Amino acid sequence: MSKKGVEETLPFGEDTLVFKVMGKMFALTSFSEPNRCNLKCNPDYALDLRSQYSAVTPGFHMNKMHWNTVVFNQNVTDKLVFELIDHSYKLVVNGLTQKLKKELLNG
């Protein structure tokens, strides 16, 4: 929530908390399974992460090429989780229209 332009939403029901930047999803988590989250990821990097960490798998209920599910407190450090959140946020921001990027910068 400390990132610029971020909002919390519940578009898929009361169990799934979705974090969006300028209306675009970059992270999801479930209240019933708070030990994991889905994060957007560069496809090549996603494959690398999955091969290195058993706690990183193709995104549950998401496009498996662009999303990972990350399970906390397994073989992924907290530092890496925060880096992956930053990576996801930046991917989404980089994909915004120029108009939305300008709004984000000026907001």
CATH architecture: Alpha-Beta Complex
N- and C-termini, Cα separation: 15 Å
Number of strands: 6
The helix/strand series, from N terminus to C terminus, equals EEEEHEEHH
Largest sheet: 6 strands, antiparallel
- What is the radius of gyration? 14 Å
* Overall outline: globular
The level of helicity is 25-40%
Descriptors:
107 residues, alpha+beta, Aspartate Aminotransferase, domain 1, globular
Describe what is shown at a glance:
With 107 residues, the protein is an alpha+beta fold. The chain has helices at residues 43-52, 78-94, 98-106; strands at residues 6-9, 16-21, 24-30, 36-40, 56-58, 67-71.
Question: Would you spell out the secondary-structure blueprint of this structure?
Answer:
Blueprint: E1 6-9, E2 16-21, E3 24-30, E4 36-40, H1 43-52, E5 56-58, E6 67-71, H2 78-94, H3 98-106
